[in-house]
Amino acid sequence: MAQEKTYIEDIERTLYDIKNVDKSKYKSQSGLTEDIIRDISARKNDPEWMLEFRLKSLEVYNQLSLPNWGPDLSELNMDEIVTYVQPDAKMTGSWDEVPDDIKETFDRLGIPEAEQTSLAGVGAQYDSEVVYHSIQEDLVKQGVIYTDMETALHEHEEIVRDHFMKLVPPKDHKFAALHGAVWSGGSFVYVPEGVHVEIPLQSYFRLNAAGAGQFEHTLIIVEKNASLHFIEGCSAPKYNVTNLHAGCVELFVNDGARLRYSTIENWSRNMMNLNTKRAVVGKDGIIEWVSGSFGSHVSMLYPCSVLKGENAKCEFTGVTFASKGQNLDTGASVIHCAPHTSANISTRTISKAGGKATYRSAVKVTKNAPYAKCSVNCESLMLDDISRSDTLPTMDIEGDEADIGHEATIGRISDEAIFYLMSRGISEEEARSMIVRGFVEPIAKELPLEYAVEMNNLVNIELEGTMG
Amino acid sequence: MEKLLNIKNLQVSVADGEADGALKEILKGINLEVNKGEIHVVLGPNGSGKSTLMNAIMGHPKYQITDGTMDFEGEDLLELKTFERARRGIFLSFQTPEEIPGITVENMIRTAKQSITGENIKILKFRKELKAAMKELQMDESYAQRYMNVGFSGGEKKRNEILQMLMLQPKLALLDETDSGLDVDAIQIVSNGVKRFHNEDNACLIITHNTRILKQLKVDRVHVLMQGKLVAEGGPELIDKIDKDGFGFLQGAE
Q: Does A425 contact B112 at a Cβ distance shorter than 8 Å?
């Protein structure tokens, strides 16, 4: 058969690429020094213990070296990154009070609209600070707290102090330490025992400033027998300089509780996305991750679930789409620490136009976790000959009677499948789109609606050369 | 009678898997005419080129036409791509239908129907028709929401092919070993499906090993393909003869 070239159009990025003029009120100097951290901490009016925490994290950061595995991070020069960019806006509960250019940005991203139709609360962060936060009144009455981390740090200091970076300690890795030193913004959610938050909450993180870093911290506590669906979206316009995202997410899912955490990451192609997410799950609790990685230049993201209580469960559903100039190293990890814990990991990765997508997972079953069950299914699709996909699973099983399954496939679109669809009157171009859409379908149906639509746009396919 | 398919001196080659770049000739000059309202059968031993003929008519890129002509309702098929041939009314029931994960049977057939007719097909009316056709083929309704052929048994895949044929209503249906791997009951169901499909305005070209599927159908012409050539042609009585004597009596008949 004649060699055909497939060219799949990039995700339509115009929407994300509209930049606002940088009107920030304050920017820290670029680089990372004790002075800069003291300055950030003072501006944020941190309690004393938090300043100490930041300084200690800086020490750890300076001691640790870059990871010796995964994508090459050498092009990241911390001396050029501005770690704190304060927007010229105060946190408010009314979109009318948000400055016009910032409000317009969130309008374009559909956030206020979604708030009206499908969300019970919204947080919107612009550069380093949250500029808008809302939550439905009836949730407040039930004791649900949803606010930015700074407010939580002052109004719920004890809870924050007990949980902040306890799951992801700064010494975990270099970028966790960096996060501990310069974190700013993010969301805090507390769902009291037995309360079910039926409608999702959503936080959106937008990085507008060139050469800046975003280090939001998300802390969610779902108490016994409570439930929550939390959605996180992120994007940024493209610049010629490197931006850095090193957020941290800590999720505490207590006994019998259920948390669904959906993320759609659509950073621009100059972003280094080095994010750390971890959940600890109590007895009979459930953590469900839905993770879409579409953007960024380099990503390293492996949400981790610590199944600490008996019968705790983890469901992980992920999709990664790596195109030209992207090296997306994503996956998941699960640590089984109690009997009868179970995990189900299902991922799809697509690479095209020279992109590189790696699925990396780690499953550990400790001695204390007999009868653990874990099933991993990862499928990769390469859309052309110049793209790459790799699968790197590791398993470390110490518990007795473990039931562990792993299935991985890496493939290309089959010419026979295209011929089959074409024999039904479907054009080659549409046949390819259908096959790619079908490939990600099990994941797409888990995404919040507006993001599922976005993902469908991703697979609009353009073609050179023909078949048949 | 209105002519549908007209094949003249068709010669088809495929890339030789062993010699790099070399072509291997499979069909060595085929002449075949199919008119509206007819059922044609092509019989022949394994490797004689039967599937190649089907794939060449449908326009599979692996099969290269080195000589000859192929018209459909007076239009040159060689100028048309596979999906254009399908839109003109040619349908191929595959010997080994592909599995397409993530695309439901309903979505697939509706998309195909929209592509072929160029019209937007209303979902409710479509569902009703699909349900009726599935009932006829004794397919459980739940299959409409399953992914195309994924986890289907061999027999279910074949029924799914006939389902598509019934729904898409082509002018010319090419059935490539649709009966292979089916048990007696399934052959009966598939055969009923073909019977219901066939009328004055369309035609079938059936390839088979097993002549049981033909028992219920009113076959017009039978062709015997051996080593890339049509070596014998006749009425339905030829089926009985081959059933009884095999292809042996035709050896060397050129």
A: yes
Nearest to A327 by CA among A74, A16, A83: A74
pLDDT tens digits for range B44-76: 888 899 999 999 999 999 999 999 999 999 999
Chain A residues whose beta carbon lies within 8 Å of the beta carbon of residue B164: 424
- The string of pLDDT tens digits covering residues A121-177 is 999 999 999 999 999 999 999 999 999 999 999 999 999 999 999 999 999 999 999
Using an 8 Å CB-CB cutoff, list chain A residues near B87. Answer: 425
| C-alpha to C-alpha distance for B142 and A282, rounded to whole angstroms | 38
Report if residue B155 sits inside a domain.
no
Whole-model pTM: value is: 0.84
* A445: closest chain B residue by CA: B102
Q: Give this complex's ipTM.
A: 0.96
CA angle A272, A278, A279 (to 5 degrees): 155
Domain that holds residue B210: 3-97+172-250
- Give the separation between CA B232 and CA B238, rounded to whole angstroms: 9
Tell me the three state secondary structure of residue A86.
strand
What CATH number has the domain bearing residue B232? 3.40.50.300
Residues of A in contact with B58 (CB under 8 A): 419, 423
Q: Which residues of B touch A (CB under 8 A)?
A: 58-62, 81-83, 85-87, 91-92, 94, 97-103, 108-109, 111-113, 115-116, 147, 164, 168
Total of domains in chain B: 1
In a domain, B163, yes or no: no
- Which of A319, A421, A423, A443 best probes binding to B when mutated, by most B CB atoms within 10 angstroms? A423
* Long-range pairs, A90-96, Cβ under 8 A, ≥24: A90/A131, A91/A129, A91/A130, A91/A131, A91/A132, A91/A133, A91/A148, A91/A150, A91/A151, A92/A131, A92/A132, A92/A133, A93/A132, A93/A133, A93/A134, A95/A132
